[in-house]
UniProtKB/TrEMBL annotation:
Keyword Cell wall biogenesis/degradation applies: no
Annotated SUPFAM superfamilies: Metallo-dependent hydrolases
Pfam families: PTE
Organism whose genome encodes this protein: Streptomyces crystallinus
Name by which UniProt lists this protein: Phosphotriesterase
PTM-bearing positions, type N6-carboxylysine: 133
InterPro entries: Metal_Hydrolase (IPR032466), Phosphotriesterase (IPR001559)
Similarity comment text for this entry: Belongs to the metallo-dependent hydrolases superfamily. Phosphotriesterase family.
TM region positions: none
Keyword Transmembrane carried by entry: no
Length: 297
């Protein structure tokens, strides 16, 4: 049986995703970003339409449980735009939630993640998640990160869904792999490390790639990150070292002023093609996501 990816419209063959925005947000809200919520369905539809017009095929939304992911709207938006959407379960850093919400789910995280992957997100009309999103801290893992990552590992072993990890400012990648792969037995190629362009440490990138993890380069970065200009060079170094099959690319729209998914194909893709060549960019946008997001037990 061929590998499949769980989208909001059902399971599809992994090799039919087309061009993939491997890390983005159609909807997201957080108390850390007051007044900057992504919560407008028509704006989401417009961004999907623009992405489709530029050749996009699939968007992977990393917005996890409790952060305004609007799972009830995703299937209709996918049908309307013709863009496949992968939804996430999981949990972000503790600072993104109220103590009451965390207390209500803390003791049943693995069950929550499994249920949203296998049965569906509550109130979303049968939409099922196809990805588990968790988060590390700045250069380390706190107790909350360890709790959520262990729950994610259990859910992964029970469902085959990949685990996507927010790395705070791109740091802590090796700590994440030590926990997920060393302690809980998750295969490294079922882990997707996000935001590595925010910490362009080539030694850490090579170590993570050598272990077998997927490396997410996403953005364009917001102005305070100021690392966009280093991304092509970092990706070229990894490709030259033999890790071109580990690379993923995403737009990571987190606030209304983020250029986002259309910009990914309109500006970032041709810029990377000049540095990496069209063949490698095609692999990053089409071939690699098919392996990274497939359900595998």
């Amino acid at each position: 049986m061929s590998a499949v990816v769980r989208t909001v419209g059902g399971d599809v063959p992994a090799d039919r995703l087309g061009v993939v925005d491997a890390h983005d947000h159609l909807f997201i809200r957080s108390p850390l970003l007051p007044g900057q919520e992504l919560d407008d369905a028509e704006d989401a539809a417009a961004r999907l339409a623009a992405f489709r017009e530029l050749g996009g095929g699939t968007v992977v939304q990393w917005t996890p449980y409790g952060m305004g992911r609007r799972a009830d709207l995703l299937a209709a938006l996918s049908r309307r735009s013709g863009v496949r959407i992968v939804a996430a379960t999981g949990l972000h850093q503790a600072v993104h939630y109220s103590p009451e919400l965390l207390g209500s789910v803390r003791d049943s995280l693995a069950e929550l993640f499994v249920r949203e992957i296998t049965e569906g997100v509550a109130g979303a009309g049968g939409v099922r998640a196809g990805l588990i999103k968790v988060a590390g801290g700045f250069h380390g893992l706190d107790a909350h990160a360890r709790l959520t990552m262990r729950a994610a590992a259990e859910a992964h072993h029970r469902t085959g869904a990949a685990i996507a990890v927010h790395l705070e400012l791109g740091t802590g990648a090796l700590d994440v792999l030590d926990l997920l792969c060393g302690e809980t037995g998750v295969a490294p190629d079922r882990v997707i490390l996000g935001h590595l362009n925010r910490s362009p440490d080539s030694a850490v990138h090579r170590q993570a790639a050598a272990e077998g993890a997927y490396l997410g380069f996403d953005g364009p970065s917001r102005a305070n990150h100021a690392t966009d200009w280093r991304m092509p060079e970092a990706m070229r170094a990894l490709a030259d070292a033999g890790f071109g099959d580990r690379l993923l690319l995403g737009g990571d729209t987190v606030t209304p002023d983020t250029p986002g998914m259309p910009y990914l194909l309109r500006r970032v893709r041709p810029r990377l093609a000049l540095e990496l060549g069209e063949e490698l960019v095609e692999r990053v946008l089409v071939g690699n996501p098919a392996g990274a997001f497939a359900l595998r037990t």
